[in-house]
Amino acid sequence: MRAEIITIGDELLIGQVVDTNSAWMAERLNENDIELDNITSIHDSREQIIAALDEAFNRADIVLTTGGLGPTKDDITKHVMCEYFGTRLIEDARVRAHIHDLYKERPDVLNRLTATQWLVPECAEILENRVGSAPLMVFHKNGKILASMPGVPYEMKIAMDEQILPYIRNYELKIKNYESRQIFHRTLQVNGIPESSLAILLEDYERHKPDYLHLAYLPKDGIIRLRLSSYGEASEMEMNDWFERLKTLTADYLIADTGDPLEVIAGRLLQQQGATISTAESCTGGKLAALLNKHAGSSAFYWGSVISYDNSVKEHLLGVPADMIRTRGVVSEEVVRTMAESVRSRLNTDYSIATSGIAGPSGGTESKPVGTVWIAWATPNGTTAECFHLGKLREQITDRACMKALIGLLKILNEKS
After folding, report:
1. Which residues of the chain have pLDDT under 70?
2. Cα(183)–Cα(1) distance, rounded to whole angstroms?
3. Among 3, 34, 172, 416, fewest CB within 10 Å belongs to which?
4. Helix/strand/coil for 333
5. Is the Cβ–Cβ distance between 188 and 250 less than 8 Å?
6. What percent of the chain clears pLDDT 70, i.e. is strictly above it?
């Protein structure tokens, strides 16, 4: 089955809201062996919605739309769907009951605009949206289906997992002579080698692998993800064989043999080892802490952080001596080691990471230019520290510093495993 995503909303096209929905949906579709051909973002415009639907139905078996399902005048998706499928809005008693139950503790929300939410296209199949008021609508056209979902990310994700994907799987089973093609993606992550040098290293590999295996280079924040893909042509055994060869060739630079975020991999190892971690951050301003507690279950290993941006915080909360800051500089091995050891001791964790650097755009010197970052890792077996030069742009520097911090943590945890 081939799919297409259409995201609807002016906010997406003026940069007010970042379209994170499409990336998440694409991953879930691939996991379910559904090939995604196109992603289209359009305005809240009748003409654009109709044109996008026509093009999508010409290309895809499944069309997924998000956005434009609210009760206000700028949300026109439901009305345009009625026009497109030649139907009308009718009241759905189940949706009405659901909305009354959803807002039973907030009666002020139940007004004449909210009442428009239980009006649905007559020809659509209505699926439950248990966390929101916008109904989930499924339409059929010439043996193809369209599923319309809200654009609010948490609503869309629950809708996809609980309603839309199961509906698609059941729909597939009803199609005669349909044969699913198994999609495989395997990803590894490397660090410490330029992308061009990595491509040279893998020249023979790429020359000899089958054409139906696709290798993509995905660099970000100093890490290169290598993704090996097959869209139905390779067996799982063949895919695993070529992936193991890729791991062998990149062994000197390999960070992880999965595409999971580094903080997820680190969290998994910390949990397996029954260990805890804390952070003391200066230049990264809490970014590292945010990564470590981003995912569910982080309370099992992440204890907390001290954001010691100002020197007075380093002195009074982390015990960094004022003389050390004055003589060695705040961006120094001595200071960052003290930060890491102090936060580990004060928060009573097994491991800790500290960062201190010059993120710019000002503040650099000849000996410590913008992009200079010291990172320290305190462990039960001692403390190590390393200096990095991470570019010239502020966001790039802090993002790369977090990745370097996590890479160092993974090395330490893997050595213990």
Report:
1. 173-181, 417
2. 11
3. 416
4. helix
5. yes
6. 98
